[in-house]
Amino acid sequence: MRIQILTIFPELFEPFLxxxxxxxxxxxxxxxxxxxxxxxxxxxxxxxxxxxxYGGGGGMVMSAPVWVKAVRAVSAALGEEGEGKPWRVxxxxxxxxxxxxxxxxxxxxxxxxxxxxxxxxxIDERVRELVVxxxxxxxxxxxxxxxxxxxxxxxxxxxxVPGVVGLAKSVHEDSFRRGLLDHPHYTRPxxxxxxxxxxxxxxxxxxxxxxxxxxxxxxxxxxxxxxxLDGAELTDEQRRELDRLRSEHEQHEED
Length: 255
Ligand code: 4FV
Known about the structure:
This protein is about 40% helix and about 15% strand. The protein has helices spanning about 15, 20-25, 65-80, 100-110, 125-130, 145-160, 165-175, 205-225, 235-255; strands spanning about 1-5, 30-35, 50, 60, 85-95, 110-115, 135, 190, 195. Helix 3 packs parallel to helix 5 (about 125-130). The longest helix is centred in the last third of the chain and has 19 residues, at about 205-225. The protein is elongated. The chain binds ligand 4FV. Ligand 4FV binds near residues 93, 143 and 146.
């Protein structure tokens, strides 16, 4: 996968692109990320990328011409070497909500992405009409820029590239793929302030451990994100556990 990022703060990405899994994936060539300073595509000596909003209302709006020129330039660079037109994504609160399914779809359908990171009050609407294929939001809150959302998307996409996350983690990945939260994790010490590690995890009985983890993932989802349960793929063990939790819950309701 190859990603081009357009931003007025390219320095924000430096530590991210050389650290941990993403850093190693880029180093090992499993994943390519190129960051461009939007100001490189300005034509005025002030290298301005924003202007007063038509209709007033305070704040500044990012200008369309520089964005259109920049997206077309980096897309052309990608297109020449790549298979086809890169998919151009604007990170914005108006976008499709990013979730596990969205990450998997993007990774499966596109090998080349251009990410647009906005700043100020927003971007001139004509940028969307001229050079944006999709808008993606990381959540219903307003940030000061699209850079952090772009990093969230890059990190999530990098974990879909074979070889980036080790086996253990891919099992971890799967939990969300099946629509459930992950089971609890424990490590040494076996006892802490009276809190003990569940015996089954010390038993060495891997079948029993797997069954415990399945039930625990189901219970965690029931307690913290019951909204996920309808769409979740449940094993028989988990279906039994859910029925048990539901009848227990009804019991409490009646008491
Ligand atoms: C955002 C989000 C976000 C809006 C105006 C940048 C800011 C500023 N992007 N998910 N939530 N963007 O708040 O993706 O330009």
